[in-house]
Amino acid sequence: MSTQELQQLREKITALDSELLSLLAQRQQFTNSVAETKIRNHIPVRDHTREEQLLIRLIKKGQEYGLDPHYVTQIFHVIIEDSVLNQQALLADRANPGSSLPLNRVAFLGDRGSYSYLATQKYFSRRPGELMEIGCKSFSEIIKKVETNEADYAVLPIENTSSGSINEVYDQLQHTSLSVIGELTHPIKHAMLVGADTELSHIRTLYAHPQVFAQCSHFLAELGNVEVKPCDSTSAAMITVNELASKSVAAIGSEAGGALYGLTAIKSNLANQKENHSRFIVVARNAVKVPLQVPAKTALVMSTVQKPGALVEALLVLKNNNINMTKLESRPITGNPWEEMFYIDVEGNVQDGPMQQALEELQATTRYFKVLGCYPSEEISPTKVAAVNALAD
């Protein structure tokens, strides 16, 4: 094949890619219209039966074009997830008139390139209004920015699939009046980033956030004689390596974040768990109303009376009201040795009857009880379709 023929093929592919983008934009407009209909008729956002039928039909159609069933499934899982999230955002916006801001001032940990920065960009890309980024050096500073009206929202990492819960954030939630209004899960892909042409064997000093070191402990153990230096954020680590421009130093962070500082990756996939994700929460001064058509979560905090079985008694309230608990975390109560505050995430909407019943019962059976927030769930589970079975039907 000549260079000219190759160029012609590439131009055709580029034209098709542009056409695909145009069609995806049209599809998104139609799904927004679907959301409007669901608002008027109080129809749930997700219809798993329709999604399954859609995927089966598309898999069969793809086979006619010679496309692999798994390839078709992966593509439409992403498209369906995007559709669901856009519809949920639209419904939430309509349920909270006047909440949309022309400028969203958002506080997060670190600077441009940090994982919190990337999560902030991802979450607010679906929300109307411009984004004003407010990087902070600590979780307490982030919370204070919102409490003092210097920021409208805060994005806080709450847990990681590798290193577990981020206790400092739970401790901040114990002492703030802010409400949890949203969540998102963001993939965490750690890479060793350098600012000079070097090799792994030449690295003597590593910069990263302490949580990152915990998530990459197996890699660090294998690395050997390398000094680790904790930083306030992954972006602070990347800034340091950029400024040093030394062949013996590196940062651990995302390749996308490192690119903002002219850093390149010399080794990727450093986390202990290859499927490494962090869950972030979004907090604001005022709570939000979540439409009943949207899957919701509710965050609670409570302390129980000091008697045997008190926690079990409280958790039975959830079981008896058929409410699924997705998270239970305990933290010491400041000034009260050996006493614990319990943080609980459950699936459910505070406007729903069973949830209201459970909240009333918990209020009556605990020593301290507070709803931290009810918010749309953004954990979109893909519709399960066995591609082979779909083709066999």
Q: Write down the overall geometry.
A: globular
Q: pLDDT under 50 segments (min length 5)?
A: none
CATH superfamily of the largest domain: Chorismate mutase
Looking at the overall shape, the CATH architecture of the largest domain is: Up-down Bundle
What is the H-and-E element order? HHHEHEHEEHEEEHHEHEHEEEHEEHEH
CA-based gyration radius: 24 Å
Question: What fold name goes in the CATH topology slot of the largest domain?
Answer: Chorismate Mutase Domain, subunit A
Count of domains: 4
Average pLDDT score: 90
- The proportion of residues forming helix, as a percent range, comes to 40-55%
**Helical stretch tally:** 13
- Proportion of beta-strand residues: 25-35%
Pfam families: CM_2 (PF01817), PDT (PF00800)
Subcellular location: Cytoplasm
Keywords: Amino-acid biosynthesis, Aromatic amino acid biosynthesis, Cytoplasm, Isomerase, Lyase, Multifunctional enzyme, Phenylalanine biosynthesis
InterPro entries: ACT-like_dom_sf, ACT_dom, Chor_mutase/pphenate_deHydtase, Chorismate_II_sf, CM_dom_sf, CM_II_prokaryot, CM_P_1, Preph_deHydtase
